[in-house]
Amino acid sequence: MLKPNRNYTRLKDSYLFYRIGRKVSAYRAAHPGEKMYRLGIGDVSRPLCPAVIDAMQEAVRDQGRAETFQGYTPENGLPFFREAVAGYYARRGVTLSLDEIFVSSGASDELGDILDLFDPRSEAAIPDPAYPAYVDASVMAGRRVRFLQATPENDFLPLPESGLEADLIYLCSPNNPTGAVYDREGLRAWVDYANRRGAVILFDAAYEAFVQGDLPHSIFEIEGARTCAIEICSLSKTAGFTGTRLGYTVIPRELVREGMNLNAMWLRNRTTKTNGVSCILQRGGAAVFSEAGLAQIQENIGVYRQNARTLMAALDRAGIRYWGGQNAPYVWMACPEGMDSWTLFDLMLNRIQVIGTPGEGFGHCGEGFFRLSSFGDPEETRIAAERMEKLLGSRE
Ligand code: PLP
Fold first, then answer.
1. Cβ(234) – ligand 1 distance below 6 Å
2. N or C, where is the chain less crowded by C-beta within 10 Å?
3. How are beta strands 260-261 and 256-257 bridged, if at all?
4. What secondary structure does DSSP assign to 328-374, as a single string?
């Protein structure tokens, strides 16, 4: 008899957003027609920008003409898309060659698939709390997981502690769910650790476009990262591609372990397991990095930043502690009165119809915290913030 992958029995039985969805559906069934205010799931609400739409419409028309029709595309991406990504990195002083950039259908796919490159016995070090896919993909692959505690004491930015033995290190900056961002010194500590130990950092840069000021957007802004890091990025949050699906992964040519070149291995993997990504999407993706595209996506990001400010101002007035929100689309608040995070979820759903995300769903260290997303509609966010201020401020 065929044996199934028993690692699936080690997964937590209920996925965070599934459990939230069930609670919201039950509330809706009991209160039909009542308006809900969603500050929960991290999906975007602004449409794709005009530069992207124009590029994709033109690409669709090209697919209808024999002279411009494009069949299969290179598995690692069309050169013009990879050039556009390289140009984006060059703006920050990071030089990448085109064969170090791989197109993808989004960060989620890559975060799971990339594990193919590593021995399943290598242990994964994952911050707690973290984006749930890190743990789940590692568990499905049979990998042991060690947690790096992210708490108010370390500003939710764990550093390599003495005695840490980690082979594969997940870092996400700006962070989902805490909104925390590593500075150069913090990332340098991880890069030095990984190079010393021969570990590899999987750097999730899905929220890099939200970084402001002099903080790093990419791990490759840190000296030494080319010999120890892989960067996984996505246009989902940068440019509203959550439903359109496009991303990219950077693997430097210098990344070698036990004589095996991880860049060459990933090319081998992609040419086996994919047949490229839609040429239409890659045309849209390249347009994101054009002058017009970069200006237009900043307008959308500006709307989300304003939403975050609205939420933070309401929490300030309510006297509630929070983190994030400055360089990330997430505000990470402490649950008031020592409440646990699912109790706060139920309270907010039932009393003010505001849906957030309980911190516990992102890991044990997330208990006692609550994530608010700034990706919603500005007017709904304003009303939700007002309702939260009234409900939670009056409880102190
Ligand atoms: N990484 C993080 C930290 C995320 O929060 C998300 C989505 O919310 C992803 C990756 C997945 O992004 P994509 O839409 O590209 O699969």
1. yes
2. N
3. antiparallel
4. SSEEEEEPGGG--HHHHHHHHHHHH-EE-EEGGGG-GGGTTEEEEES
Residue 37 phi/psi, 5° resolution?
-120, 110
CA-nearest residue, atom 12 of ligand 1: 107
- Amino acid, res. 374: S
Distant-in-sequence, close-in-space partners of 186: CB < 8 Å, separation ≥ 6 = 157, 159
* Residue 304 CA, distance from chain mean position: 15
Mean pLDDT of the chain: 96
- Give the model's confidence band at 13: pLDDT under 50 very low, under 70 low, under 90 confident, else very high: low
Centre of ligand 1 to C-alpha 337, Å, is 31
To test ligand 1's pocket by mutation, which of 108, 111, 231, 242 has the most ligand atoms within 8 angstroms of CB? 108
pLDDT at 395: 62
The finding on whether 112 has its CB within 6 A of some atom of ligand 1 is: no
Strand order of the β-sheet with 168-172 is 101-104, 247-250, 229-234, 200-204, 168-172, 124-128, 145-149
Among candidate residues 194, 160, 157, the one with its CA nearest the CA of residue 173: 157
107 CA: nearest ligand 1 atom = 15
Bridge partners, 172 (sequence order): 204
| 247-259 confidence digits (pLDDT tens) | 999 999 999 999 9
